[in-house]
Amino acid sequence: MDRSPRVRKTRATALVAACTTGILLVTGCTSSTGGKNAETASNGMVAGRAKTPRMTIAMVTHGVAGDPYWDVVRKGAEAAAAKDNVKLVYSSDPTASNQANLVRNAINQKVDGIAVTLATPDSMRGVLAKAEAAGIPVSAFNQGLDYWKKLGAIGYFGSDEKFAGQMVGNRLNSMGAKHDLCLIHAQGTVALEDRCAGVKSTFKGKTDILYVNGQDMSSVQSTLTAKLRQDPSIDQVTALQATIGTTALSSVKDANSKAKVNTFDLNKDIVSEIKNGSIEFSLDFQPYLQGYLAVDSLWLNKVNGDIIGGGRPTLTGPAFVDKSNIAKVYKYAQNGTR
């Protein structure tokens, strides 16, 4: 490695140039009035705070309050907000019309940017047109891969849900599964429909779809238990959400079924069940990263005119988590960031 004074001087000059742009993005950039330690809002994962003017970003999701998945999304958003000197206003509602009203409220409050999930794109079309007319940039994340451009978002941060389902179908083939039951816990949500459609398109066995009420876990458990008792040929259950996955384990036990369970998404319980072998695998979409990028992209667009992805979606998954890599992921899940 070249340690010559010339090389050291060049590197130092480059660092100084990066730190004088007014956008302090890395830990190596400090000043007499800044260079603060990480904000506590994000488990110490933020290096410092930008010196750009204070701005407000609204994040509006279709998530259910208290759901561990959305807690992770919010942590990522808070980490980006802490770094970017952004006031984050977070709200959520699983009902499409209510989510649209939350976006409308953000527009009326004249926020600087809106990060939104597109679980039901048609319900968001009108209100996002109002955001565009008001000159408020929008980033889409988590759901809406096929719709974000049509609705005027500057970027998309999430996964290709149908492809993720296809990955699961192929995985089930390699496991020798014959009959899969795919659980949709929110009817009409495009991402969930795409996941099961993807499984069905590649799985060589039989795929059935069962609709359950994802807002009532006792109902999910009783509905699934009844189905497993009715059809003992089901040897695999595919849950599309971590909480549904752990509930599915209880149903399998109640029904005295031999079915194995796999799921989408992670939480502390799921990584523990993968570790002990109760759940075969999970597909991880990195919700922390989704929340982080959805906010950070709006800040970068505001202060530097940046567009992340170059007109293409920025994929945060999917990736399998199973016994082969659970040890690496486990500690992050326990920290609440995976």
UniProtKB/TrEMBL annotation:
Gene3D superfamilies, per this entry?
3.40.50.2300
User: In which compartments does the protein localize?
Assistant: Cell envelope
| Matching InterPro entries | Bact_Solute-Bind_Prot2, Peripla_BP_I, SBP_2_dom
User: Where do the Periplasmic binding protein domain residues begin and end?
Assistant: 58-299
Q: Where the protein is mainly located, per its record? A: other
Known PROSITE patterns for this protein?
A: PROKAR_LIPOPROTEIN
Family named by the database record: Belongs to the bacterial solute-binding protein 2 family.
Instruction: Name the chain's protein.
Output: Substrate-binding domain-containing protein
